[in-house]
Amino acid sequence: MPPTTRFGLALHRTGTQLQFTIHRAAPISRSILIVDDDPAIRASLAEALAELSTDLRVAADAEAALHLLAEQPVDLLMTDVRMPGMDGVALFQLVKDR
To answer: Does the structure show a pLDDT above 50 at 63?
Structure first.
C-alpha cells in the first residue's frame, strides 16, 4: 500500500457561500465516500477532494451510502449529521458495527 500524504481541509462559510481550502503535498490513494443530502455541499466537497483520492464516491442519503459500502468499503466516510431518514450518526454506528 503506498504511503498517504497528510492534508488539511478547512471549510469557511460566508452567508450562503462555501469556500474550501486544502493543504496537501500529493494525492492519496485512499477511497472516500461523501454523504450529504444537500447537492451543493455534496458537489463542493467532491470537487475539493477530487484531487486527493483515486476513488471518490458520493451519496445523497444514508441508504444510498450503505448500498455503496456493501459493494466496496471505503477508507474515509464523510457524512452530514442531519439528513432526512437515517442521520449521519446512525450511519456511522451501522458502519462501525459491520
So the answer is: yes
β-partners of residue 57 are: 33
Cell of 13: 462559510
Q: Is residue 9 within 8 Å of residue 21, measured between CB atoms?
A: yes
User: pTM of the full predicted structure?
Assistant: 0.71
* Average pLDDT of the segment spanning 10-18: 68
The rounded distance, in Å, linking the Cα atoms of 18 and 79 is: 16
Residue 85, Ramachandran bin (φ over 0: left; ψ between -120 and 50: alpha; else beta): left
Does residue 92 contact residue 77 with C-beta atoms inside 8 Å? yes
Q: Kindly state the cell numbers that stand for 92.
A: 456511522
Say which amino acid occupies 91: L
Q: Name residue 11's beta-bridge partners.
A: 20
**What pLDDT score does 2 carry?**
47
Give the C-alpha separation, 59 to 71, whole Å: 13
